[in-house]
Amino acid sequence: MMENANDIPELAVRIAETVRGVMLDLRPRLIEAALTGRRGESENLRHQDNFLSEYDLWMHRRYRELLTPILGSFVYASEEAEPEVIGDDPDPDLCVLVDPLDTSELAVRGLLGYTHVMVYSRAAARPVIAVVGDIFHHLQLYIGARDEHGTDRAFVITADSQAYELRQRTKKTLSESLVTNFLMRPGERFAPLAQKSRLLEALDTPGSDGKSRGRIGVDFGSVSLCHVAAGMTEAVIEFAKGFAVWDLAPGHYILHASGGTVLDLDGKPVPLDYHFDSIAEVAKAMDRRQRFVAAGSVDLAQEIVESLH
Fold it and tell me: pTM for the whole thing?
């Protein structure tokens, strides 16, 4: 559910405006890449299975440049490089997790493109701000932020700067739900999903009027959890390869701030503590993957976990 909001925490607004500015600069370049076919693919030495473009690398450098005067000293943990300390403090509290251009393979085709920035307090062992930007759509910025009272809150801002607070209110069962999954890769993702017969049968169960309302959709990275936070979808499942931390953590925090939940495949809550205790631990976290079920309610998440076994 969305309600008008005008009290987003100030630092979150500054980070969000930074993300908006980077997207504004990048969008025409992506459109040109899509229409000319010159997509700027680069060799991906860090993640050989992933598409990497020159735009990912530009955004990686641009975020580091723009966030430095806002945050001062921080650990910069981007998907496109090893973690590094920015500023004068050799052991800063803040860690900034960045996925410069998620779904870059689709972004350079002008179809879909997202960008993630999360500010994590190592002292608090949790995120304090997350922004997920949608490059091509009207609902443009999804935000999670801790306010002055210590309350986590979630927001969405449109392309014309209308801001709404996100709160979970609707409770649906699995048979009524739109459940999404990153199912684009045929062997690695789609085939395992097609074998989840209990899940598919539950989604196809008709209601009292005889109509089947459950649906499977495709969605991507952190924005998939943001779509649950906004009530556009009911749940996200990832049981095959697992999401890397930069794909999961920003959306996880935004969904949490809206009142949603993320469970592992044993039905236990996935904590917001990502163990960024030291630079070495941050580097280790970059290599971990998390399988999960994310939903607007604990009941729905548990129902889905049960259907996956």
Answer: 0.93
